[in-house]
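Collaborator request, handled under Task 6.
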Amino acid sequence: MAALAVVGLVLGVAGVALVVATGSVYARPPVDLSFADADAAYGACQGFVRAQLKAPGAVTFEPIRRRTARRYPDGRVFVRSHADTTNAAGRPVDIRIACTMRPLGGDRWDLESLAVHGD
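Structure tokens returned to the collaborator:
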């Protein structure tokens, strides 16, 4: 019985040492969004992206998916997707987008960060 207690103590100390050595801490998972909230966030992000693009052509965004938008525990919403557009020379370009926004109520959003990366 004492040997079992010693083994448990050693494994516990080893686990704590591993967490300290790797810097791993528990991070709260994102909170699920309803489809309506995710769709509203995706639409808002699309609007922010369209305002930033300099290309005159149409922008075709990827359809919304399960992991396109997610809510953080503090209420912010993160959207990640991609879209197809054309550059000034008329060549097709695939762009990756990421928005972090805070809902203000209704259809209003506060944009905290926006990243648009092209090929």
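The cover message to the collaborator said: "Strands lie at 60-61, 69-71, 77-86, 92-105, 108-118. The helical segments are 2-22, 35-52. Please let us know whether this matches your experimental observations."
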